[in-house]
Structures are given as structure tokens and as C-alpha cells.
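User: I want to check something. If I give you two sequences, will you return the structure for each one separately, not as a complex?

Assistant: Yes, each is folded on its own. Here is the first sequence with its structure:
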Amino acid sequence: MLTIDIITVVPDLLEGPFSHSIMKRAQDKGLLTVRTHNLRKWAINKHAQVDDYPFGGGAGMVLMCEPLANAIEELQLNNTYDAIIYMTPDGKTFDQPMANQLSMLQNLLIICGHYKGIDQRIRDQYITMEISIGDYVLSGGELAAAVVVDAIGRLIPGVLSDETSALTDSFQDNLLAPPVYTRPADFRGMKVPEILLQGDPKKVEDWRFEQSVERTKTRRPDLFKED
């Protein structure tokens, strides 16, 4: 089972993504546990303060050291984390190989940044992995954390009803997935490729591979790596 703890200042943002569909089924099966922790539980005063102005001036607020350190250390009393992850635009770009790697771990702690981010000392002292989901900025790390958890969770054996489904996803072989079709075979004159209707698994497999290669060359040539 994979257990993921998430520290956030807006836990309500994470209720929906983990309460439906595949992520809900994964938790119902006991294969995945996702626990959110409101950082304000460790606030420094009765006003639930967890942020302050940055030294040196400038716009925005920064999540403070004390609440984050206390939250992490309290959670560590009962958990040994394989990775403590900070969601940040300047982290390593999240991809399928990273999702595969993280899905094989047992305990993860994810820190969701907010405002202008978190005090650098927390990053230096506690964080073992920094992840970005793309070259853009969100209001906070919650949606990015949800993306990472979803990508990881669906890879856990037993989560998907078809065990081979995740293995044929885009990016698993550094290729995009091929086109897919379902019934009817003829929709308004647009027909399914004949090879998919002939019932020859080997020919279908070859066709899908060729389509994946061609689609990747056209849409994501950067995925091809020279030997």
C-alpha cells in the first residue's frame, strides 16, 4: 500500500480529486491512502498565522519556517518517508518515469507551496525532492499535488481493473499512445481502420506501434533520444 500525506493551507481544494473515480476506488481497495493536513494546525498564534512578509521586501507572502518544520517533524514521529516532496515551479519536471518510480515507494510526504512559496530553510533542511508539473505558475501547490498523486496512484498494482492499461499509456515507452476507436465501426462515414477489425493481434500490435512512433515524431519529436 502507498500512503501519501499532504501538507496544505487549503485542504478543501484536495477533497474532490481524491473522492471520486479511480483514486476513490484505490483507497476503497486499501491500495492507497491519502491524508491531508491543514498547516494552520501548526500556526504560530491564535490568528492561525502560517505566513509572513519576505525579508528584503517585495510583493506576496511566504510560508514560515516554524509551522512547516513543526508539521513535518510531528508527522515524522509516526511515519518514515521515502521522499519529502515540495511542489514548486522550479522543481524537476514531472514525467512518466518519475511517476513509475514514486509508485513503487511506500510513504510520501508532499508539501504544497502557497503565495510566494516556502522559506528556503525548509527546502534546505527537509525537502528531498522538488517537483514541477510544468512551466507555469499556479495559485498554490494543491492542484499540482493532485496531479502527481493521480499519476502515481493509477500505477499501483490492482488499482486499474485492467493491469495492462497503465503499461500502454502515453510516455511509458517514450512514445505517445496510438489512436483508439470504439463502436460503431462506421460513424457518419468515418470508418475505423480495417486492421483493427480483422482480429489479428500481431498485426494490431504492429499497427499501434507504428502509429505511436508516427504520432510522437509529429507531435513530440523531443521525446526521441539519440543513442
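And separately, the second sequence with its own structure:
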Amino acid sequence: MRVGTRESKLAMRQTEIFCQRMAEVNPGVECMVVGMKSLGDVDLKSPLNQMAATGAFVRELDDAMLRGEIDCSVNSLKDIPIDVRDGLSVVAIFERDDDCDVILPCPLEDLPEGARVGTASVRRQSMLAELRPDLEVVNLRGNIHTRLKRLDDGDFDAIILAKAGLDRMGIDRPMFPLDKGHFVPAPAQGAIAVECRADDVETLEALRRLDHPRTRIAVGVERGIMKLMGAGCSSPVGINAVVDGDVVRVRAVSYGYTPEPRRVEAELSCDYVMDELLDIADYLVGKRDVL
């Protein structure tokens, strides 16, 4: 099986995890990793929310799959656009890792007034501006190691990253989880996903054995609300769902759609209907004032 991935260290590590799990559930399948550069890896200057191409981190991989050059691709699910390309399917979603944001090298409350904080996420930028308007929040692009080096070099007083990526890379240094009550994670944060061609029956069958149903339900709620909002991977929106028995607990926040941020805490059944997601989406974008 030819497995496509970005060439970043984190993407390669996630693909190693995929290959290990494939060996466990499909011992007769041999994986050959094919590394590629994405637009998001090459263009490190443009803010993510202003980059023209949809799917800045997956487009090249999708193209290669559709051309038959690779059989599947491994990505962070939050980098995959809500509207998956025609002819492709997100067939496996791994059990989600820790989905919180962390700040390094000190707690947020320990930062002095005017401290310089780096993050590429407009979601995190909006949350920081709301909670600590005294901080200087600066756009910071690059892979995990590049961002950590810039922190160590003194370019920033602090940076914010996703904990899952640090954990997967085995990075052990002082980091402080940000309260998910305010810093609501991005939709699908912490989840690894595998795409393949929708008509590739053999690959579909092998990959389905890797799917984690509870995570699929949770991220389905998150990405469903985001789609109904008309939002995208780089929108100033946090949506997080947790499956607890037969209940899905949803926490969400949106910025920029209304004069003040909109926050939601709700419970849905695991067999929810789309109208329930639409109610939440409409509230977050200001189309309705009560849930």
C-alpha cells in the first residue's frame, strides 16, 4: 500500500503510527511511505486564513490519490476540508489524542503585560485577544520544531501549540494546558484521519479496520456544525464534542460573526438529527439569538 504524507516530522510520525496500526490489524499489507510537500509547507509567510487554496495541507496528496500515484494519505483531520474532494473518502479516523491547546514555556497568567505570543491560528488569536488584550499576538508559521526554536531564540515570550502534536513527537518540556472552557479546541483537533479513493474497494476494506466509532461521532458533530456555519479549517471557531455513553456533550465558540463572541454548551443524543446541529450553527453565526 502506497501511503502519502507531508514531509514534516509530525506528519511522518503520524504516518509511522498509521503503519504500526496497519501491521496490527492487516498483517499481510506492506506500507510504502511517499513523502510530499504541500502548499502550506512551502508558503510559510501567508496567514493560514488568507491562503487562497482550499486544503492548503492536503491538496497535493489528494491530487496524487486521484491520479492513482498513492493509495491513501494520512493527515491531521483538522487539516482536511469539510467538503472532501469528489472521489475521495475519509475512511478511518483514529481514537483521538489529547485535544487541548498548550502554552509554552509558562502559564498564560504568568505572562507580563505586553508579552509577545506566537500562534498561526486565528481561533487562538481571537481567544487570546478576548482574555488578555494586553498581549502582543503575532502570526507564527512553521512546523513544531521551527516554532520551538523561535521560542528558544527569544523571538517570542510564549507560543501556543496543540498538545497532541507535541505528545506524538515525544517532546518533553514545560507546557501548560489552556482551559478548554475558554480555549475551545478546533474541530477535530487531536484526531488523525486516513483518506483513500472512494472506489478502491480493497483499500477501503483494509482501512475501515482502523476506524474508532466514538471519535468519528464526536468529530462528525464538530465538523457538521462547522460546515453548517459555512466556516473552514482556519475560521475563528472552536467546536469540541465528547461522547459520554449515549450523549454527546458539545462546547463551541465563534468570533467575528456577531459583535460579541457566541458560546454554546449543549447535549445531544448520539443519534442526533441535523436540525440540532443547524440550531447550534445558526446561533454561532448570529442567525438566531437563542438556542
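Because they were folded independently, the notes below concern the second chain alone. The chain has three domains: 2-94+191-211, 101-177, 224-284. The domain at 2-94+191-211 is CATH 3.40.190.10 (D-Maltodextrin-Binding Protein; domain 2).
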